[in-house]
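Q: Start with the shorter request: fold the first protein.
A: Done. Sequence, then structure:
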Amino acid sequence: MEITEYLPVDFRTQMEEETLCGAEEIRLRVGQPLEILYGDEKEKEIGLLTEAHMREVLNYLSGYSVYALEEELRQGYFTLEGGHRIGVSGRASYEKHGTSSCMKLLSCISGLNIRLAHEKKGCASVLIPWLYCGENVYHTFFFAPPGVGKTTYLRDCIRLLSKGNHLRAGKKVGVVDERSEIAACYRGIPQNDLGPRTDVLDNCPKEHGIHMLLRSMSPQIIAVDELGLPEDFAAVADCARCGVSILGTIHAGSVLEVLHRLQMGGLDLIRSQMRLIGLQRKPDGRRILTVYEGGGNPLWQGFSEPS
């Protein structure tokens, strides 16, 4: 289905063919206009979303069976065919398990964020020469605030390293895709091109997935998204001790913040084998890419087109 077919009929009739050209997100909030966000930071508002409109959208997204999405809704998101990711907000109910708690149900859904999947093949090609140390690959971490494009560049690096080129053979890459954002699997099948030598563990916690791939798939590189929890960094450290390179992303606003988080995560010992890549978004949609060595000293800076 085209993404517009998931939207309320009332709104489709107000959208022209080029309305979604360059769009990155479609946000729906009950009581507010439908909002379209573009890569150049422009916005477009259409109509006013009612509760009836929200029920209509949920019916389209779930195939008229919202209960079929109950497990995904507990996680706060789900993925459509084509790799589009739907973030969900509403009323959360929790249940306790000893000293911890977990979400039991997400109901009264009042907001959706449709993050449109855009593969930007080749966007990371300028970075690849900086990732190699001889025939090996540096442990590499992309950092930026949310929404700048870390996962997009990570995805393209995975594809390029897996594919190889006329100078270097492709690498075996294992991907732990906890949030289904890297491969955008739909019913277990990656919707994004991650290269010919890439294996994906979809919807699997990073700490478990990293160890599973190490035991079973003999990867040369393991890629993960959104490192943040102590157990994530512990699993990454285990991976590095096994001689496997790590590609990952971290939410951070500066290289000093990344270095602090890596130190707290116990990754100080691999700084000499590390590259850090910072992303900044320009008003015209271009990204400024800065490559740092493991100690935080800049090595290169350049621009990358958004598409």
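Q: Next, the second protein, separately.
A: Sequence, then structure:
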Amino acid sequence: MAALRPENRNAGQADRPAMRRDRSAGDAEAPRRRVEEPELGNALMREVAEAFASSRGRYGYRRVRAVLRTRVSEKALRRIMAEDGPTAHVPERRGYGSYEGETTPAPGDLADRDFTAEMPNEKWLTDITEIKARDGKVYLSPPIDCYDGKIVAYTAGPGPNAELANRMLVKAVETLPEGARPLVHSDRGCHCRRPGWLALMDRYGPARSTGAKGRSPDDAAAEGFLGRMRTEPVYPGHWGEHTRDGVLVPIDDCIRWHDHERIKRSIGWMSPVQIPSKPGNGCVIISKKTSAAPLSHLSHIHVDKAQYYIQV
């Protein structure tokens, strides 16, 4: 019995031409890739640095990516900014508290942590924060429109007194169109529960709303704005080196920049003043996820709850 032999796997392949891999093309491309990749990386680093500088050193990697309108991933931009230095300031935060007990009966929490609005002047949030200066402190009181995040008005002064909050309310309601009666939501600070504030609310007609005691998420959107203000311009700009009168100038500049230039992811990487008050004809609806992408081909945007109306 003939011994079994393994099958010759190369049988029948002798007549086939030898298949040799031509590496010459790949080898020629390799040096060029090694030259081009650092050049592309350096160009991207320069663009990142320019975008960061144009934001006055206030944008993180997400907003830098939106400004550049690039396809480079957020992870890559975060790494570039971490390695090369352009990183937004992240301070240790210490909040100012104005709670003085239940001085007057508190209204209910009508906002219920829903910080969105379908129209301008439908829902306002307000709070008071302190900013350290060389010769004391400056206190800032702004109302924020939940529709687009715009600062409706503001007052700033050397003390967190009732006059500061009352003047803010008067300045804000003077901007209202005829018949507008926004919901004004605040925390349980004493400034929004004193007789002067209550009398102004009765005179002008807005509805009152307050969060629960010790529940900062009940006024999270207002506290978020004040926190970003500290993180982006106050600490990096060394406002503490100015006098109290000197701090008033960068406060006004910061609020103007916030309303006119600072882009927001929640409204499609636009600033509050770029949003029209009503959607026009020819609008299409896109999702939040889509609206977070760069919108270079779109002209106007309108926010309505969980949807964005983009006029093209």
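Q: Describe the second briefly.
A: The chain has a mean pLDDT of 74. The radius of gyration is 29 Å.
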